[in-house]
Structures are given as C-alpha cells and as structure tokens.
Specification:
Blueprint lengths: L16 H10 L4 H15 L4 H8 L3 H7 L4
Length: 71
C-alpha cells in the first residue's frame, strides 16, 4: 500500500501493537520467536509469496528461505 507506516511507538497507532509487544515481553518471548511470528504473519499477508514477503520485510529472499519458520 502507498500509505505511510505508522510509528509503532505512537500510542495511537498499530491497533494494539504496543500492548501485544508488552505482553510478549512480559511472557518472556525471545526476539527470535517474535521475528518468527512476524515472518509467519507476513507470509499470511502475502498469500505465501516469499519474494513479496521478503521485499516487505526488507530482507533478501534467501534470508527469508533460511528463516522461514514454516519450513
């Protein structure tokens, strides 16, 4: 989309993103686990299109293939 991304630190943005991150931190979720969950969600958003997901994540497609938690 062409809409600018909101700053996740903004209390009015993200529709509960700050709360979700706070809950993850309180529950001891590791950064790696959080990244894996985000990658999984990006793959859902892109309909499993790994090239598109990698582009949206700002990583190389090969990195996504290596990090894909669904493999």
């Amino acid at each position: 989309s062409d809409e600018p991304m909101s700053d996740p630190r903004d209390a009015n943005s993200g529709g509960g993103l700050n709360q979700a991150l706070a809950d993850a931190a309180r529950n001891g979720l590791t950064l790696r686990a959080l990244e894996d969950l985000y990658i999984e969600q990006m793959l859902v958003v892109t309909g499993g299109k790994k090239g598109e997901a990698a582009r949206m994540l700002g990583i190389d497609r090969k990195t996504l293939y290596r990090r894909d938690p669904t493999n």
